[in-house]
Amino acid sequence: MSAAKPLLKVDGLAAGYGDLRVVWDVSFEVSPGRLTVLLGRNGAGKTTTLRAISGLNKLTGGRIEFDGEQIDKATVAERVRMGMSYVQEGKRVLHAQTVEENLLLGGRVRNVRRSALHEDIDRIYGLFPILKAKRSLPAGSMSGGQQQMLAIGSALMARPRLLLLDEPSGGLAPVVVKEVMQRVAELKETGIGIILVEQAVEASLAIADDVVVVDMGRNVLAGPAGEMDLEELKRAYFGTRTPDGGTVVSS
Ligand SMILES: Nc1ncnc2c1ncn2[C@@H]1O[C@H](COP(=O)(O)OP(=O)(O)OP(=O)(O)O)[C@@H](O)[C@H]1O
Ligand SMILES: [Mg+2]
To answer: What's the CA gap between 30 and 241, in Å, rounded?
Structure first.
């Protein structure tokens, strides 16, 4: 996928809920400073894949390597300490707390004095100037797009090396989606690796380095974003797997 040493390697990942397996065989890599977009329709297994990577769901097959180390058995907290930060689907900010309080809470996992977090907060304000302008306001008073930026900013307070973003475009107007994607693209320049789960196909392809399409819990297409054939991608995205593993195109 890329020349740089991968930060995350997911190989044949299988996961589910209790005895129910919903992800069967998902594989991809993420390198530092690069963004892998995970596409797929509703129920394809995208969120479950992120949950398994972050440790919230048990791995029932395959393996996960982070920074060259197998982490299949690591707890959620250990993965956070290793440098994974997961922004879950939906709004993840505390509405009654101010923007700055939300950021401070995001930094809590680092276990350092509050005063030591202000350098990080300034860095986040540099990335998202709107958060600086609204720093003393309750997070709930901000627009959906601004809250999404705060959720991402709070996750960055943990100083992750890998950021997992689950549908940051959810519920946002197209023009706002574009802005959020632009900010996410800028994060790559800080050197972190990003997994972006999306249904906003075109907006996310515009900022992706690598693409994985998942359907019914399996990879159906993977490759560099620049080499993706949009028609082939659409077929993979909307395709339905047949029992022999082939793909039929639904009209
Ligand atoms: N807590 C749960 N318990 C049981 N089954 C679940 C649970 N969460 C999700 N599932 C099932 O697992 C499958 C994959 O769901 P998942 O949330 O990973 O899909 P997704 O690709 O993220 O979809 P969406 O685009 O709608 O967010 C679906 O069939 C879903 O119904
Ligand atoms: Mg989901």
So the answer is: 26
